[in-house]
């Protein structure tokens, strides 16, 4: 890999548009990886909220389940482990990155099977446990794939196609999971819905197992597969037990503090959301005064975070504020769009079609336009287009709420939503990829992409409480406005310049 280059949050310099396009095999690989990560994401998010709504769970409790999506926000905590350690067995033959991906896919499969056999939701803590495990292994898969992607495609021009391919796979999988799971649930039940998607999510595993080893001439494929599977089962069992113990402790503490579905959690959520900014503001002066070689001399666990704060200094605060608002509309739409459709009286068959062909076509078009914008336009212009598209994707649900229920209304709203957020997502991934240092691509991208969803997902957990106060129409007006508000940070963000070590 080449020597570390300086990343900038301003519009990328001319050199960032240079470099050969990624080969088709790389685009195909990231189409597959995006697909394998997108399937489970919808199952612990939008499909789960619809499942809970159909079982008559209170909207405030459904909102609390959206906090499971906070787990990817903190992926920077264990991202350095993926850069430093290898999975026994798998990594010996297929390499570190693919080893983690294969372990993650086993975790995804078993977690989804567990969710299938607890699909009656009679025990909400048990439902939450398996949803958290599914979110954890899905996020681990994304961390391994993101670090590899940035190493393979270091320039903005190269990132555009590979991000588009990855998001095509990701969003097509989300559509397949949403539409397919809902349709199977309509025909059979939620148990079969989760089992079918679990089987589909596991399909990439044998494909990866059949791929060539990391080093030419390596032998022992069968032994690596058997050993890796045994070690994976031990790791998965330990992770499940640890999660159950921690979850029991957190739940007991929350109940002991008197929190319930009737508690107004919105002020608490907003106060928590401010804490990272306060901590950064306190730490930045000291980090800014460090010598240029200080991050390289620090332990590997903290060096990537100190390095990005050192490079951007005080400019990191508006940058992080900007990324916190930019995906607001996407997250909040995903949290309550399906309960909204259920409350508006749409059937599972209609929702399945909206999440299927309509969403797939429009999402793919949005991703393609977003990737083209990111590769061809100044980053400022591309980001503005994405923010506007996201806001419109939220506001269209206000029209749906007041319109007479019909298939046409549902499909138009779903199509506008998927196009807008697909476009916004493609632009955003390229923007974040340009901020990281090539020395720490996986860890820094995990931090930035995780932090970007901290505020939206914190608010998403309070979405049910907010909806009870201002209604579905007020909720989607607010969520679109918050996404649009990211534009007002751009004059500050685009002036930021990174220091060179």
Automatic annotation (TrEMBL):
UniProt membrane topology term: Multi-pass membrane protein
InterPro entries referenced in this protein's UniProt entry, alphabetically: AmpG_permease/AT-1 (IPR004752), MFS_trans_sf (IPR036259)
UniProt keyword list: Membrane, Transmembrane, Transmembrane helix, Transport
Regions crossing the membrane: 29-53, 59-78, 99-118, 124-144, 165-186, 192-211, 223-248, 268-287, 308-326, 356-374, 381-402, 408-433, 445-466, 472-493
SUPFAM superfamilies according to UniProt: MFS general substrate transporter
Superkingdom, natural source: Bacteria
Subcellular location field: Membrane
Residue ranges, annotated region (Disordered): 1-21
Comp. bias regions, Low complexity: 1-16
Primary localisation category: membrane
Name this protein carries in UniProt: Permease
Organism whose genome encodes this protein: Sphingobium soli
């Amino acid at each position: 890999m080449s020597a570390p280059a300086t990343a900038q949050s301003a519009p990328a310099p001319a050199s960032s548009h240079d470099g050969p396009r990624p080969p088709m095999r790389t685009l195909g690989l990231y189409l597959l990886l995006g697909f394998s990560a997108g399937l489970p994401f919808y199952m612990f998010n939008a499909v789960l909220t619809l499942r809970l709504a159909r079982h008559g769970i209170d909207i405030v409790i459904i909102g609390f389940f959206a906090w499971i999506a906070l787990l990817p926000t903190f992926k920077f905590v264990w991202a350095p482990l993926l850069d430093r350690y290898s999975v026994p067995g798998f990594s010996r033959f297929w390499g570190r990155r693919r080893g983690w991906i294969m372990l993650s896919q086993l975790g995804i499969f078993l977690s989804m099977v567990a969710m299938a056999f607890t699909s009656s939701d009679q025990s909400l803590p048990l439902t939450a446990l398996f949803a958290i495990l599914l979110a954890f292994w899905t996020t681990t898969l994304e961390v391994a794939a993101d670090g590899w992607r940035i190493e393979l495609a270091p320039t903005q021009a190269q990132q555009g196609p590979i991000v588009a391919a990855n998001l095509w796979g990701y969003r097509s999988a989300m559509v397949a999971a949403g539409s397919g799971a809902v349709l199977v649930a309509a025909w059979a039940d939620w148990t079969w819905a989760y089992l079918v998607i679990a089987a589909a999510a596991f399909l990439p595993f044998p494909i990866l197992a059949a791929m060539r080893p990391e080093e030419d001439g390596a032998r022992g494929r069968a032994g690596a597969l058997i050993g890796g599977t045994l070690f994976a089962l031990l790791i998965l069992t330990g992770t499940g037990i640890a999660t159950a113990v921690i979850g029991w402790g957190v739940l007991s503490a929350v109940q002991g503090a008197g929190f319930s579905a009737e508690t107004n959690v919105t002020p608490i959520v907003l106060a928590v959301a401010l804490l990272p900014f306060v901590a950064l503001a306190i730490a930045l002066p000291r980090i800014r005064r460090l010598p240029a070689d200080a991050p390289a001399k620090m332990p590997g666990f903290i060096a990537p975070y100190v390095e990005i704060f050192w490079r951007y200094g005080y400019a990191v605060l508006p940058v992080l504020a900007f990324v916190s608002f930019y995906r607001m509309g996407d997250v909040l739409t995903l949290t309550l769009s399906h309960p909204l459709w259920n409350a508006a009286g749409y059937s599972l068959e209609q929702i399945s079609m909206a999440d299927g062909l309509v969403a797939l076509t429009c999402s793919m078009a949005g991703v393609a336009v977003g990737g083209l914008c990111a590769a061809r336009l100044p980053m400022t212009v591309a980001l503005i287009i994405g923010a506007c598209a996201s806001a419109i994707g939220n506001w269209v649900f206000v029209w749906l709420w007041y319109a007479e229920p019909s298939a046409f209304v549902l499909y138009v709203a779903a199509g506008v939503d998927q196009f807008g957020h697909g476009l916004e997502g493609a632009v955003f991934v390229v923007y974040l990829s340009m901020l990281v240092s090539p020395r720490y691509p996986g860890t820094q991208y995990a931090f930035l992409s995780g932090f970007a969803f901290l505020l939206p997902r914190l608010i998403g957990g309070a979405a049910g409480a907010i909806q009870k106060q201002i209604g579905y129409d007020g909720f989607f007006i607010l969520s679109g406005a918050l996404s649009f508000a990211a534009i007002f940070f751009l004059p500050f963000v685009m002036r930021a310049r990174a220091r060179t070590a």
